[in-house]
Every structure is written in structure tokens, then in C-alpha cells.
From TrEMBL, chains A, D:
This is phosphoenolpyruvate--glycerone phosphotransferase. Pathway: Polyol metabolism; glycerol degradation. SMART domains: Dak2. One of its GO terms (biological process) is glycerol catabolic process. Gene3D superfamilies: 1.25.40.340. The gene is dhaL_2. It catalyses: dihydroxyacetone + phosphoenolpyruvate = dihydroxyacetone phosphate + pyruvate. It comes from Halalkalibacter krulwichiae. ADP-binding subunit of the dihydroxyacetone kinase, which is responsible for the phosphoenolpyruvate (PEP)-dependent phosphorylation of dihydroxyacetone. DhaL-ADP is converted to DhaL-ATP via a phosphoryl group transfer from DhaM and transmits it to dihydroxyacetone binds to DhaK.
From TrEMBL, chains B, C:
The keyword Cell membrane does not apply. Gene3D superfamilies: Dihydroxyacetone kinase, domain 1, Dihydroxyacetone kinase, domain 2. Dihydroxyacetone binding subunit of the dihydroxyacetone kinase, which is responsible for the phosphoenolpyruvate (PEP)-dependent phosphorylation of dihydroxyacetone via a phosphoryl group transfer from DhaL-ATP. Residues 14-337 form the DhaK domain. Its EC number is 2.7.1.121. It comes from Halalkalibacter krulwichiae. The lineage of its organism: Bacteria, Bacillati, Bacillota, Bacilli, Bacillales. This is phosphoenolpyruvate--glycerone phosphotransferase. One of its GO terms (cellular component) is cytosol. One of its GO terms (biological process) is glycerol catabolic process.
Length: 217, 340, 340, 217
């Protein structure tokens, strides 16, 4: 799992997420319109735009990965009022503990970061697999992460994590919603992919893209 | 701005601004008793907060339940509240701001209903407060016996009986008790109260413009939640006496009360049910308890936790020991209630 | 016993016994504050009546308007009430019994709304009391500006603004004033208050089982009376702000209030309109009065005079001079309200 | 207007009214079912049965016409809760003043009694002719009473009063109700005879029967 990932790379990753969320804003809203109140794209955009401001400002030259993650989590939380606010914020705040005081992290650290990220979200939201939430994306990713061997190439390994996340995300189409706003729809929730499961996939997928690009440079 | 749906029997402006305008009206009306600590007015505290040396008590939850939640902020009652959109949890940030504003160093107790969003956001807010060295404890109300059968008590929702948890913990805090002591009272109150309700009609969310579910013309639903969560039994509308009988006997089955014990009774209207009918129900509840030799120490009859204009009511019974009896008699005063 | 009409969304037993059972529940609940002086429970007085040397103040009217009428009997408020069937006048005999029970020799003042049955029966009761040498004076509330155009003031109906007449006259009586003085205050209160309301839906009489009239899905009626008496204008449901504007400007046109004057504002829900909406309306009323430089001395927001589960609300404005301002701040306490 | 009418005759009259109201109980209820709450017959029966008890008891040997009328009015009032309670009670109480302290009254007194009776009801109820109430029966009777000449035979004269009352009663069929419970029906109130107008007619008509019988004995 040799990989070098610096605070600079982390800032690049976050910038990439900002872009991806902007690109997928309408798509996420459309998914949420079928299941919830149609604001998930707007919510994600608001949260990541707030993070973007920090990236251009106080985080511009930040070298501590921990502090970057804390600011990201806090910023997201105070910008976003809806359910995903505390969920993603908790992910970043828990992840922050793994990488605190580090300017450069290893593949092992990154693995532990994402494990902490996902477990934080699970703990915060108390959703279970099958409830039709972002946990349906994150749980398979978590299991796949835990299987990563210290001997294998991290970028290749993370591709498997993303693939597992994708299968999980797609599985939400056929599920009956049991958590959050969409649970009110009951049977009518079946047939539509969960917006939070989708944004969670995008977050992981963008990480894979970032480290892949990093590697090829 | 969204158009008002004109087949909705509501006196509102922009459906999306219902909560903001309600809060603006509230603050204009009660500036002598409440203050806002955020520009969005979503975090309110009593005018004299933080109250020196006192444990701060906060709550929070969605709008559409007035006088719940913000109606319980005042002297002898809660210190602050975070206010969400209609039937939506407030954000962790809004809760954190309330916690900060009522903290005097004696710690803060968060009391709220057992709903996913509220629990998640209050947990988050507690974590953040903790990072700022504010001691926060929580007690989650779980009084609605219809929401989960016996054995699953901790998964039950919090409904009108929450009033008792607020009242008793607040009275204890007002006496200068420690965070641990106040928390103990809140837990005891929650463990000593049971609620069950009946809904005869749904309510309409302003943003949606039509009822989110329906109850047939001649039907009612026993145990329906205050956001329309499914109850335990659908059936033909029954008489007030038979409804009271079902509610009281379910409560007494869940929490047996012995002859000679003291209780407090709360008859809560869900919004559109006239006070007249609440008294008809109280009549039967009174007789049932008296027949069992149970002493009614006091009673609260009116609207304490509503669901917009839902038709229906709930009955809560609180078992009193000497400690709770003393606390329940303490005075309090908020813009919505007062007890001398 | 009549069968419950099961398509009615009401929690009742026998529709014919609604008032009797409501009163039974009420007396069981509030035996520390109210007592019944007739076996039919239709005449109630405050627990400490007759209050030595005090002018007695009584009211009466049909049921279905809680907290009106009986909710205003208590310390610092009225001494007694005669309770009629739903929307029906109590009998002269029931009124006479109340008058007798509160009479201390200082005379009795009867305050009630300007409705045929109530006027006829109170007049009859006064004649009978007179034959027993009890001095009885009456002031009839006529605050509803929608019920008769300017010029016909004395033919107007009494609605929620009656609260102010009760409150102010009672405060004066509590100070030990004479019957003449108390009557003067009641007349001054009635002359200084104006009310106008809007109804968005009708209500259903328990004995009838269906709405006695209808309002179209997307319509409202400005100025409808609390028993469904026709109003001044039917039309599409308007926004809260525009409703508030109509009500306040009609009131100010009928009773001009100068810049710098003090007023009290009462926002009254008719039954099924959530408190949230009353605050949205208060917001606009507050701004309108503030814009005109009128000072809001205090305000009452909630349900003060309902029509069972009617959807709608009314706005009352009371013009205060120094005398009324002092009286309005006096404390009172009934089973339904208290003011410290 | 020579006529002798004693306290005994008055008691006989009241007994006759008790009977007439009993006979017409169902008819009056039926009229009220079409216009109001269907209780007018029951109400009248309750009121007059209460009076009947007094007639058999404390009024049995009463010789003061005034006291008989006061007791009648008061008894009716306390027995009856509905609109007609204070209306008929006021009639008897106002009439009582005319005949107080008298054991025997003249035709002139009887005329004044009924004038006071009717004016009392009008004052109490504030109804006007055309409102579809008992006033539609009583007002023509009042006018006819006022025209009675001191020279004419009272029994014959009172026949004209009753005839006027009858025309008045029948006129209520075509009226729109404006007072009391039936006013809620609006247009639907047209076509039915008013129950109160009917009971008022019966009260006058029974008086005529009583004095006629008295004369022929
Ligand atoms: N308890 C929970 N645990 C995990 N994810 C949740 C939970 N509740 C809601 N979510 C996720 O949040 C998403 C909705 O987010 P968003 O639309 O931003 O919030 P809101 O529902 O408040 O409008 C859902 O699609 C779901 O994936
Ligand atoms: N203000 C009034 N003046 C005269 N008569 C009236 C008045 N109001 C009602 N009535 C009479 O009362 C009658 C109804 O009497 P009843 O049925 O006993 O009373 P309620 O309407 O209370 O049930 C009506 O038919 C009408 O003639
Ligand atoms: Mg959403
Ligand atoms: Mg949302
Ligand atoms: Mg009738
Ligand atoms: Mg009747």
C-alpha cells in the first residue's frame, strides 16, 4: 500500500469534490425530488461551496491534514441544515483524528481515514444497510476497505472499494426507504436511487480519480 | 417565493416562509420573555439567559407543534430551544448555538423527542460542545407507548408527555441542583410517564398543500404519531368513553399504577379538536382512575403538543412520588403558559 | 340516546349530552376553582363566590366557544356564568341562579354578547332579580364591526373582543368599585374595542353531524360570525398579510386611533387554525400598527372565543387610555388562563 | 263589555290550556321539526304540565288572579329552557300586574290583561311582524283587542281577536324566518307554519272557548 498523499493532495481532492458536486447538483436534486424534498443537490452545493471558500482562504497553505479535515467538517456542518450536514461533517471530523498533525500520510493512513469516516457516519445516523441511505453505499465500501492488504497497490485497491460502493449505491433503487424524509413515501420510494447514496459514491469516486491522477503525474 | 396553494385552509403567506414569519411574529410579541441569538431566529433563549449558576436546559425540534417546543422556554421552564422547519429537525449548529448561550459552566441538559433527525443533530451538537469544554448531557423522551411494544421502550417516540420531563427537570434546575441531579429527574420523569393518542384526521404541511396521508371519513387511528406515523390500530370512530378506555387501559397495562398512588394527567389536543371534547375525555379518564383508587394530584387539559390542525388527542399519565409531586407544583411562566 | 354520527370527526359520546359531559369533566378537573350551583351544572361560579362586598360580574351564552364563556370565571375575572347548549342561550332561570349566587348586596353586572336569545333571557333574569331586590345592570358586547355597518353600532354582535370587557370590568370590581363604576368601565371597554374576523371553513354541530353551511375549497369569508352568520365579503383565500391588512384597516376606519396612542391587540383562533398562523398574522398587525406610530401596550395571542373547530381567526384592537391601561395589567387567574 | 270572570274561571282556563297543549304536543313538534329542533310541543307540554301541578296544589284555592298569573309565569319559566320560556312567562307576569289583588275581573280588565300579555312578549322578544314568530299571531290579535268597544259583548268581541290571530298564524307559512332557531334555514323556512305562532293561537283560542263555555252555563 505504498502511496504518498500530502496535505496539498488533500486540498486538491477537496477542490475536485467541489467541482463534482457542482456538476452533479441538478442530478442530485432530481433524485431527491423523487424521494424527498428535492434539495440534496442544492444542499451539497451549498456545503461544498462554503468549503471552497475556506480552500481559497484560510486553508490555502494549510499543511496539517487533520486541521484541513476539521475545517472541512465544521464548515460543511454550519453551512448545511439538512440531514447530510451532521453525517458528512462527522465523517470528516472522525477522519481528522487519524491524520492529525500529519503533512503527509501513507496508504495505511488513508485506509484508516476512510474507515473512521464511514464508521462515524454510521454511528451518527444509526442507519443500517437496506434502509435506503448513503450507508448502502458506504457499508460495502467499508468492508472492501477492511480487506485491503498492506501488500497491494493502494490505487488499485481503492478501485475495488469504489466498485463496491457503486454496487451498493445502485442497490438502493430497489429498496424501501426506512430513514429520513423519504421513509414517508413507503412503497412509493421503491424504484428510485437514493440521493445520499449517490453523493456518497461521488465522494469516494472522486477520491479515486484524485489519487489516480496523482499517480500518473 | 412559492405560491400559496389556495385550496389549503391556511392563513399564511409564502409556504416556505411559514416558520420564519411565525418566529418574527413571536419575537415581536414576546420580546419581554424571549430573545433570538441567531440572525435566522432559529435559536431562542429566555430573556434572562444564561441564568447564573443554573444548569441550562435546552430542547429543539421541528415546527408545527406549538406550543411545543418553543412554548416551554421561560421562567421555571427551559432555557433555550432550537427551532426547525415544519416537522424537520433544527441543525446541529442551531442547537450548538443554544447550548452555548445557556451555558453558565454548570453544564447543559438537552431534552428532546426520540426522532432520527433530532437525535443525530443533538448528538452532533453535543460532540461539538464537548470540544469547547461545555458539559452536555441528554435525555430523550420516549413516552409514546403506541410507537413500539413493551420491551422496546428506548425506541419509542417522544410526544406530549415530554411536557412532564421539561417541567420536572426545569423545576429541579431552578432549585440549583447539579447537572447529574437534573438529569436524574429528567430520566425519572421519562420513565414515569406514558402517552397514547388517537387521530381522526391528518394535517396538511404548508409546503405540500394537501394531507400527506388520509384517514377515511368514518375512521380513526389509535396510536398515530404526531407527524402521521402509523399507529397500532385503524378502525371506525368510537365514542369518547371507549377511546378514553382504550388509551387509559393501554397506559396502565404498560405502566401499572397501584391503588393509592398519585398521578398527574395530561389531556392534549392535537390541533383541531375543541376543548369541549378534551373535557369529555377527561371526565372518563377521571372516573377510570378514581375507580381504581388512583389519586389525581393535578391535571393539564388543552393543547400542549399539536400537529398543525390534526383532529385528535392524546392522554398522558405521570406517576408521581413525593419528589416529583413537589417539583410539579413549582410555578413557571412562559409566553404560552403559566402556573402559580 | 342519539347515535354518534360516525362521519363526524369528533371525540364525543351521545351528541345530545356533549355539554353535560363537558361540564362534568370540567367540574371534576377544576373543583378547586369553580363550583356548580344547580343540579344540571348549567350555572357555575368561582369557588369563593360570593366575594364579600364586591360587585358580582356574570356572563352567559351558548357552548361550543371554549374558553368563552365559562373560561373567564375566576380570580380577578368574572364571578359566574350560565352555560347554554351548543350555540344556544342558557335559560333565564339559569342566569337568575347565577345572579343570586354572586350577589353580595353590591349589585350584579351582566356582561354578554348581543345575541337575541341571550339578550332576551338576561333581560328576563334581570326583571326577576329586580323583583328580589337584587340590583342588576347589563352591558352588551358589540365589538364585531362586520355584523353591522357604522351607525348601527348597538346592533353589532359580540365576539372575541368581549374578553376585554370582562377583563377590564373585573379588574375594576376587584378594586372594590361600585356597580355604577364597574358598569362605566364595561361600557368604556366595549366602546373602545373593535373586532373583525375571517373564516376559512365552517364547523359541525354535534347534534347535526355535518357542517351547517359550506365555504368553498379555495374560499374564505371575511366577517363571518362565530355561529356562521354571513360576513361582509366572500372571496378567494388571501395571504395572511392581506387578510391582516383588511382586518386592521377596517378596524382603524371604524375606530380611528391616533399616532402615539396605546392599544392592546388580541389575535384569536377560531378553533382549528394553528397557533403558528396566529403569530404570522400578529407579525403583520404589529408592523401595521408600528408604521402608524401606534404603541402596542400588550397582546393576547391564542384561542379566546372559538366556534368548535372552525378554521379562521379574528383580530381585536382595544384603545387604551391611562385608566384602562392600569386595569389591563392587573393579574387574573381562571382554569384556562392566568396573567401575573 | 259586561262579563264576569273569576279566579276560578282563570284556573279553569289554565287547566284547559294544559289539555290543549297535551292534545297538540305532536302537532307542534312536527311543525318545529320542519323549522327548528322539533321540540316545541315537548317544551310546551313540559311547561304546562309544571303549571298543572301548581294548579292541583298551591293554586287549588287561590283567589287572587294576580298571584295565579305570577305563579303560572314563573313556573313556566323555570320548567322551560328554550326561547318560549321567557316569552310566555313575560306574558303572564305582565298580565299579572293588571289583575293583581283581584278575585273577579271585568271584560275591560281582561282586555287590558291580554294587551299587557302581548306587549310583554313583543318587548321581550323584539321580534317584528313578518319575522315568522308568535308575534305574527299576537300582533293582529293586539290590534283587534285595542279596537274592542266597551259597548260590545266581550265574548263576541274576543271571537274577532281569535280570528285575527288565526289569520296571523296562517300568514307565517309564507314567511322567511328572521328570528330564533329557524332563521338559520333561510329560504328553506318558507312553506311551513311557525310552531310558536301556532301555540300562541291555541292559547288565545282556548281562552275564547273557556269564556264561551262559561257564558252558556
Ligand atoms: N440516518 C441517516 N443515516 C444515513 N443517511 C441518511 C440518514 N438520514 C438521511 N440520510 C441520507 O440523507 C439523504 C438526504 O439528504 P438531504 O436531501 O440533503 O437532506 P434532507 O432529507 O434533510 O432534505 C438521503 O438520501 C439519505 O441518503
Ligand atoms: N325573539 C322572538 N320573539 C318571539 N317569538 C320567538 C322569538 N324567538 C323564537 N320565537 C318563537 O319560538 C318558537 C320556537 O319555540 P321552541 O321550539 O320552544 O324554542 P327553541 O327554538 O328554543 O327550540 C318559534 O316558533 C317562534 O315562534
Ligand atoms: Mg432532501
Ligand atoms: Mg432538506
Ligand atoms: Mg324548538
Ligand atoms: Mg329547543
Amino acid at each position: 500500500m505504498t502511496m504518498k498523499f500530502t496535505a496539498k493532495d488533500l486540498l486538491t481532492y477537496l477542490k475536485n469534490v467541489v467541482e463534482v458536486m457542482e456538476e452533479n447538483k441538478d442530478y442530485l436534486c432530481e433524485l431527491d425530488r423523487k424521494l424527498g424534498d428535492g434539495d440534496h443537490g442544492v444542499t451539497m452545493s451549498i456545503g461544498w461551496q462554503a468549503i471552497n471558500e475556506k480552500l481559497q482562504d484560510e486553508l490555502k497553505d494549510e499543511e496539517d491534514c487533520g486541521r484541513i479535515c476539521i475545517t472541512t467538517g465544521r464548515t460543511f456542518l454550519s453551512a448545511v441544515g439538512s440531514s447530510v450536514g451532521p453525517l458528512y461533517a462527522t465523517g470528516f471530523l472522525r477522519g481528522a483524528k487519524v491524520v492529525q498533525n500529519k503533512t503527509e500520510v501513507t496508504g495505511e493512513d488513508v485506509k484508516e481515514f476512510w474507515i473512521a469516516f464511514i464508521e462515524g457516519i454510521k454511528e451518527r445516523g444509526q442507519a443500517e444497510v437496506g434502509d435506503k441511505t448513503m450507508v448502502d453505499t458506504l457499508q460495502p465500501a467499508l468492508e472492501s476497505l477492511k480487506e485491503l492488504q498492506s501488500t497491494e497497490d493502494f490505487v488499485e485497491g481503492f478501485a475495488k472499494v469504489v466498485a463496491a460502493a457503486k454496487t451498493g449505491m445502485e442497490s438502493t433503487k430497489d429498496l424501501l426507504s426506512k430513514r429520513g424524509r423519504s421513509s414517508r413515501l413507503g412503497e412509493r420510494s421503491i424504484g428510485n436511487q437514493d440521493p445520499g447514496a449517490t453523493s456518497a459514491y461521488l465522494i469516494l469516486e472522486t477520491f479515486h480519480q484524485t489519487i489516480t491522477a496523482n499517480q500518473t503525474v | 417565493m412559492s405560491e400559496v396553494n389556495h385550496s389549503m385552509k391556511k392563513v399564511i403567506n409564502d409556504p416556505e416562509r411559514v416558520v420564519d414569519e411565525m418566529l418574527e411574529g413571536l419575537l415581536l410579541a414576546h420580546s419581554d420573555k424571549l430573545k433570538s441569538i441567531r440572525v435566522d431566529n432559529r435559536s431562542l433563549v429566555r430573556i434572562d439567559a444564561p441564568v447564573k449558576d443554573k444548569v441550562g436546559i435546552v430542547t429543539g425540534g421541528g415546527s408545527g407543534h406549538l406550543p411545543l417546543f418553543l412554548g416551554y422556554v421561560g421562567k421555571g421552564m427551559l432555557d433555550g430551544v432550537a427551532v426547525g422547519d415544519i416537522f424537520q429537525s433544527p441543525s446541529s449548529q442551531q442547537m450548538l448555538d443554544v447550548i452555548r448561550a445557556v451555558n453558565t459552566g454548570a453544564g447543559v441538559l438537552a431534552l428532546y423527542g426520540n426522532y432520527g433527525g433530532d437525535v443525530m443533530n443533538f448528538d452532533m451538537a453535543s460532540d461539538l460542545a464537548d470540544m469547547e469544554n461545555i458539559r452536555v448531557e441528554s435525555v430523550v423522551a420516549t413516552d409514546d407507548i403506541a410507537s413500539m411494544p413493551k420491551g422496546g421502550e428506548e425506541k419509542r417516540r417522544g410526544v406530549a408527555g415530554m411536557f412532564y420531563m421539561y417541567k420536572l427537570a426545569s423545576a429541579k434546575a431552578e432549585q440549583g441542583a447539579s447537572l447529574e441531579e437534573v438529569k436524574r429527574i429528567a430520566e425519572k420523569a421519562n420513565a414515569s410517564v406514558r402517552t397514547m393518542g388517537v387521530a381522526l384526521s391528518p394535517c396538511t404541511l404548508p409546503e405540500v398543500g394537501r394531507p400527506t396521508f388520509t384517514i377515511k371519513d368514518n375512521e380513526m387511528e389509535i396510536g398515530m404519531g404526531i407527524h402521521g406515523e402509523p399507529g397500532v390500530k385503524k378502525g371506525k370512530i368510537e365514542s369518547a368513553d371507549s377511546i378514553a378506555e382504550t388509551l387509559v387501559s393501554s397506559i396502565l397495562e404498560d405502566m401499572p399504577i397501584e391503588k393509592g398512588n398519585n398521578v398527574s394527567v395530561l389531556i392534549n389536543g392535537l390541533g383541531a379538536t375543541p376543548l369541549e371534547e378534551l373535557y369529555i375525555v377527561y371526565r372518563k379518564v377521571h372516573h377510570m382512575l378514581a375507580d381504581r383508587g388512583i389519586e389525581i394530584h393535578n391535571r393539564y387539559i388543552g393543547e400542549f403538543a399539536t400537529s398543525l390542525e390534526m383532529v385528535g388527542l392524546s392522554v398522558s399519565i405521570l406517576k408521581l412520588d413525593d419528589e416529583l409531586k413537589e417539583l410539579i407544583d413549582e410555578p413557571f411562566s412562559t409566553p404560552f403558559f403559566s402556573q402559580n
